[in-house]
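Q: My collaborator sent me two sequences in one message, no labels, and asked for predicted structures for both. Can we handle them in order? The first one she listed is below.
A: Yes, handling them in the order given. First sequence, followed by its structure tokens:
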Amino acid sequence: MIVLDYNKVEDIKRFLYYDASIFYRENKKVRTIVVYSSDIENVEECVDAGTIKYRIEPFYMINIDGDEKLEYLKNKIQNKEKLTKEDMMVMTFLPLMRGRESRSERAIKSIELAQSIEDNGIKLECISMLYALLDKFGDKVTKKKLKEMITMTEIGKMIREEAIEEGIEKGKTKGKSELIIKLLIKKFNKIPKNYTDKINNLSNETLDIIATDIFDMDKIDELEKYF
């Protein structure tokens, strides 16, 4: 699945190359679904490359009522019902759906809603997914609000609670470093193995600094200054 907020035929050609490479390497059929934000509808769906006729499957967020989905999730969280994987995905994409308010306003409401989730594991996952989406599609106001809300205090609290649940002795850095690595993977898709090893050996203080700085990083190699 690929998420876009613009429409370019060149992207379809790029997806053709990726899918053909995967098919050649893995010998498996590939299904490419492209999710378009509510600003876009009726995109170019196929490329005619002669003997090759390639088509994507577009999914238009303009067809989904974001206000209705927001209300549904709000009621579910207020009633302390456990969110499903589908619910978490819906929450992540709320800013890209159709709604009465601007994308920035819907993004902030999505973040606030995620913050109200009681289950710390689900809360962290939702916030991480929202960050990954808004880091790419959010405006400056949304990103600033997101950074303010995802403070080290909140992340630190979730880390400590998760560490207790997993039986990690208080004072050890293992639980914290693992969550930092998860956040980095959410932002950059993957991180080099040598970075993972180095993060696992960092002090609590350095991990705290990285946790707050993650939201300003543009490149994974910016981690070098902490090692």
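Q: And the one she listed second?
A: Here it is, processed independently of the first:
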Amino acid sequence: MSVISEEQGTQAIQPIVAAAQRIGVEVAAPAAEDVDARSRFPQEAIDAMRDAGLLRALIPVELGGLGCTLKEVASAVTELGRHCSSAAMVYAMHQIQVACLVRHARSPQLLDFIRDVADRGLLLASATTEVGIGGDVRSSTCAVLGQNGQFELTKQAPVISYGQYADAVLATARRDPESPPNDQVLVVCRRENLQLEEKSSWDALGFRGTCSLGFILRATGPRTDIVDDPYGDISSQTMLPVSHILWSSLWLGIATAASDKARKFVQAAARKTPGTVPPNALRLAELTNVLSQLHHVVIGTRTRYAEVADDPDQTTSIGFAVSMNALKVSASTLVVDIVQRALLICGMAGYANHSPFTLGRLLRDAYGAQLMVNNDRINANNAQLLLVARES
């Protein structure tokens, strides 16, 4: 079952994006500084998204959702990212998990769970990293245990973003204790059957509202809560591309917000000296060129995925993996470049924390983009893939 087709749900484009824009302006933006200062969960923004139906956007209509496309959700992420990076990241990560369920869960029990996500506006989190695997999400030490139709899972997760606020956590693990590290499954760990033992705090430079603490995750439940497809297929066909598309859409929102501040600063300077082009106008033109590059990279790759999302031959190919990895590296690098350019334009007004043109939070959040799934690891992975790729 696919929700990625660009043809489906086109009538909902304007309402979904408009709702995200309204929530961004009226709810997320007023709370963003406090969320950042206190490193707290953006509860009011998530509640507003739930009330507006945004948490069920990617779920098909027949399962109680809005039947929106990935393009629509990505546009909503960009709008939210212009106002509060943390709220937008929580929304993006939730939708990544929704996409994995909608595209890879087929059992009646999991379809009922998806309906519950839509009906109750449940918030989903992810636990794919694990202590001792060095950030390699395609390998697990922990394994699914249990018998008589039940599972038990204990996972040492160095980070589960907003885990203590989620209604369910989708965790990776080896299929069973005898399975090799890369024979993984994706397990739905429901709140009522889940214990999270806090092992680390969260006081980071940016994205502070994601509350990305480390936990020991302990979960039980029926084995029907294990997603049907192998995690390798889920990762290559859905989790990796959707993650990079939604993350890059968020970074586009950050970059757009920085560009807007720089433009308003230059326009204010121009009004003070009518008939004279402000010195920073040239820098603004150069910034706009780089922002255009980011926009084309994000939109172009998003469009390509929409075209091949339901073709496993394409989504499991080396060329596809390289292009999706390249999107993450390029977008996460360009967003920092753009915010830095905006800072040079705004000068001390952008450097000051309490200024209409302050860029501190945007710059700190932008730097996080290269670190979440570190770009060095992604480039190393692409290097290995290119070594075995055949000439096209």
